[in-house]
């Protein structure tokens, strides 16, 4: 499967491995940095635990994947949001930063407020 964003591309292999390349200025490649890649680079490996990738989507400056276990991962700027069945039931997301530091589970409204405050402070 291939997902094309505005300036980057995601490739999911038949074995469920994820590769990304293109512009990475916003962290959308999911590789933990903001570096552009001219050739496909594997995301992870191991970033998704034992789950395999079954679907990928790419936007202008973000990426998202769905794992075989129903988890949803997104990549953009500094945060990776993990949403599985448990999080959906509780209205939460698991938050990690691009350096793969786990910040734990947060309510969606609390995360939105935190991101709004960080954006305001950045501008």
What does this structure look like?
The protein is α+β, with helices and mostly antiparallel strands and 123 residues long. The chain has one domain (2-122). The chain is built from two helices and ten strands; from the N terminus they run E-E-E-E-E-E-E-E-H-E-E-H. It has helices at 85-90, 108-122, and strands spanning 2-4, 8-12, 18-22, 37-42, 53-58, 63-67, 72-76, 79-83, 92-97, 102-107. The strands form two sheets. The chain has a six-stranded antiparallel sheet. Strands 1-2-3-4 form a four-stranded antiparallel sheet, with no helix packed on it. A hairpin with a 5-residue loop joins strand 2 (8-12) and strand 3. It is globular, with a radius of gyration of 14 Å. It starts with a strand and ends with a helix.
Number of domains: 1
Helix/sheet category: alpha+beta
What fraction, in percent, of the residue positions are helical? 10-25%
Q: Given the C-alpha coordinates, what overall shape results?
A: globular
- Averaged pLDDT, please? 81
Number of helical segments with 4 or more residues: 2
Tell me how many strands there are.
Answer: 10
Q: What is the alpha-carbon Rg in Å?
A: 14 Å
- List low-confidence stretches: none
Order of helices and strands: EEEEEEEEHEEH
**Major sheet:** 6 strands, antiparallel
Record the strand order, biggest sheet. Answer: 5-6-7-8-9-10
